[in-house]
Amino acid sequence: MLLPLQNIILEKIATGQSLAETVDYLCREVETMKDDIVCSVLLLDEERRLRHLAGPSLPLEYISAIDGVAIGHGVGSCGTAAYHGEPVLVEDIDTHEYWQPYKQLALPLGLRACWSTPIIGSGKVLGTFAFYYRTIRGPSDLERQIVSACVHLCAIAIERDQRMAERRRMADTDGLTGLPNRSRFTEVINEVSRREPDWALMLVDLDNLKMVNDTFGHGAGDDLIQVVAERMKQEAAPGMAFRLGGDEFAVIVPCIATTDPAALADTLIARIKEPADCAGHLIYPAATLGGARAGVERSPQQVRQNADYALYHAKERARGRYVEYQPGLGTAIAKRFRSVQEVDQALREDRIDAHFQPLIELATGRITGFESLCRMKMPDGRLIAAAHFHEAMKDAHAAIEITERMLERISTAAGDWHREGLKFARVGLNLAAADFHRGGLTKRIVDSFGRAGLSPDHIVAEVTESVYLAQKDNVVAEEIHTMREAGIKVALDDFGTGFASLTHLLTVPVDIIKIDKCFVRRLADAGSGSVITRGLLDIARGLDIQVVAEGIEEQAQAEHLLSLDCRAGQGYFFARPIDRDSVREMLEVSNFHPEWTRILRERERLILHKAG
């Protein structure tokens, strides 16, 4: 009788049927086995209160009355059983001391006795499984067997549900702040747009985070992000504050009839401005906000774009304040247009050039190659990095022109080094989405290096996650395959900053993964930074993929990565990007990094000394 039911329940658990539906089915089937049994299952929440899970034969008023009752000695059968972790049998509800405060709820329903058993999993009470009887009595031997089996099944079902809930929570939660992350933001904004006729979105950009990081260290920067996140969480509606990444946050106003977005923005700005202790430093945070109301346009994508426009405008014209979108406010497009104009003029005036940052083999200190980085010389002689004109890279024409210029400069420089007998393995070239969709990318790269007297195995094509995942028409995937067949190594750049799934590496393999600097910065943390980096290294080794750690800024980071058996790294600790002549001077001296090589020798000497 019990075995078929057990198999059905286990199948429901294994196939992912909801906990409530599974336990409700179990209770209904058990109640058919005995005429006077009423079955009830309660969960124990984090506040140690009992919460209704299943009780198909109990009326709603009874369920509502006991839902949320705190457990304790003498709190009915279930409250006492959960409190002590032991079964509690009350054969006569009318006279038993445990039931005196609650018997007026049970007796009018014809419930005369109650036998409650704690559901225990992983050494803690998860809830209770109870039989109510319509007569004054205790359980039979058969009923004891039934309850024993049911309690075990409930423990399996509840533990699995809790594990799944925790996995969902972790997947939807930002590790640093505890706020819902970008993935959860996308889900919630879609839900709100379907449910509410009038809602709003505010995007929040934390000002001067880079300055805090550079001045006081990344520990202070992380503290600042956490402080701001907590203040936003306190002021926003529950579950409506999000961290989108870096210094970007979002707040959804689910109903503007009850909450005025402008008033909430003023409150947020005031709260964020309050002084904060960040790693022992007194910091006065500031934030710039841009917002948009749904109104007639309820599409979450359009509202998000409008809020982006407003935020761009605020950052340009009203930093530290809130700007709400108005029709015609498209400053982001204007900004991109100006950026494209600047790049076009720089190309015409030959002010776009390549600089090179060395890649270091961490175990030996050998310089294995270089990543080429785009630099623009301003009319006043200043050099600015590509990040300052990244808006132009969103324009396909500008992106292609920059790649062509960089390819010519890189291949020429590498060819010169090679002819001069300087030792290096490869040079990396960063590619944009437009480069792939133009067509013939592999041939252009191979031909350019060929004219410089270099074979394709001297080239690393660096592709960011956003480009790598843009495979709707398979253009990127097919071109990556063509590159690798031609002998070009392919590196997945800034790994971990987007939504790259490791499963993509099985369908579109690459040769190198470049771990983003955000993980390197958090290596010293006891939590996610080191764990994720170690996991990526293990997975990469299993897939025969090389790993390069980006953004190494401190000796301790380099040493930590070396201890994790990371093969290579780059960053300001080793060298800033330098021009082609400086690369020549560096390689003429040695193809080993002098300071890191000295540190490695000192480490080896200390190890040998200790061993001796």
UniProtKB/TrEMBL annotation:
Q: Which domain of life is it from?
A: Bacteria
The record's listing under Pfam families reads: EAL (PF00563), GAF_2 (PF13185), GGDEF (PF00990)
Report the Gene3D superfamilies cross-referenced here. 3.30.450.40, 3.30.70.270, EAL domain
Keywords of this protein's UniProt record, alphabetized? Plasmid
Q: Name all GGDEF domain ranges.
A: 197-327
Recorded hits in InterPro entries, A to Z, give: Cyclic-di-GMP_PDE-like, EAL_dom, EAL_sf, GAF, GAF-like_dom_sf, GGDEF_dom, Nucleotide_cyclase, Rev_trsase/Diguanyl_cyclase
Residues forming the EAL domain are 336-591
The record's SUPFAM superfamilies line, in alphabetical order, gives: EAL domain-like (SSF141868), GAF domain-like (SSF55781), Nucleotide cyclase (SSF55073)
Tell me if Protein biosynthesis is a UniProt keyword of this record: no
State the protein's name: EAL domain-containing protein
